[in-house]
């Protein structure tokens, strides 16, 4: 049996790496530069940028996607 619970898990569960430092784990996402960054990058380049934790950034985007799909679902239902 494959539980329905798996569909609720975000697909981005794998480790993401910094674009500038491929050996470093990128746990942050710079919304100003639109790229994954590590903590070293924040200090050096993205200090004054708009950045967020990766899970939160992707959760935001996911919400936008879900919201944009809603009207379509409603149209199908009626
Ligand atoms: Zn980096
Ligand atoms: Zn940046």
UniProtKB/TrEMBL annotation:
A molecular function (GO) term: zinc ion binding
All copies of domain B box-type, residue ranges: 13-54
Claim: Aminoacyl-tRNA synthetase is one of the keywords in the record: no
UniProt KW rRNA processing keyword: no
Pfam family, one: zf-B_box
Keywords: Metal-binding, Zinc, Zinc-finger
PANTHER family, alphabetized: BONUS, ISOFORM C-RELATED, MEIOTIC P26, ISOFORM F
The protein's name in its UniProt record: Transcription intermediary factor 1-alpha
